[in-house]
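Appendix C reproduces, verbatim, an entry submitted by the partner laboratory led by Prof. M.T., so that reviewers can inspect both the input and the predicted structure.
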Amino acid sequence: PENPVEGLFKQPLDLVRGPQNGVEYYTRYNNDLPISVVEEMPFSVAIDQPKAPIVRNGTMKLKVRAHRKEGYDKKITVRFPWKPPGITTPATMTFGEKDTELDYELNANSSAEINNWKITLIAESDGGKGVMMTATPFVNLSVEEPFVSMNLSMATAKQGEPVSMVAEVENLREFAGQANTQIFGIPAHATAEVVKIDKGTTNLSIPIVTSEKTPVGQHKNLFCTVTVVKDGEPILHRVGMGGVLRVDPKPKAAATAKPAEEKKVVAKTAPKEKPLSRLEQLRLEAKKAAEQ
């Protein structure tokens, strides 16, 4: 009562802007807030209140629901008019002509501001008489510190051989139960299992199986997702960014000696006698006659 709170409303109306650089040439200010009453909307949109927080370097999928009046089957586009610091989202998402649910993905970077925030979505749809716009009721979004961090060691494997990527795990906050850990960014034709950790895990071995088709070389930017469940909802972390898996060529098989070829034995034939000339034949006959 001693210091009453007062407010001021001022809306700039840009009436003329330059065609090249967009500089305002003529602006008027309006101190009155216009309000109009329209017919009831044929649709409304709401966000399910998240039960779990989003953590730094984490992601969250907000469940958004569209409520349609019977017969209204137009597309509805939703967008955030404002986002908490460090939170990024797709620019817009759209309900199909008869869709009533969608998941709006939120991503928090490593410096997202820790706090409880009120968020809302703007929803637009063309009902045939122009664009209709409405907003969702506010819901609370809690941004918190992550539960775990991780450091991936470099791993090396030959094509077609298994390998284990070792990770150092640091538990930053206690959590109940077990969390699923999955590695991403591994090369084509390689597979990895989902492994589990708990609040006491400090070292982790992630099995990776390569094949003979796995590309040779250094595969960088591997990372892990760790999914902690709280109040029945997943809290997804991105950890261990920058892991490296080196794949070496498959060893060549040793050359096998060819069996010795059997030598072909060629039968020797007596050389054919040279036919005698007529003179030699007469001499031979004369010699035989003399001997007789």
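The first helix runs from residue 278 to 291. Additional entries are available on request from the coordinating office.
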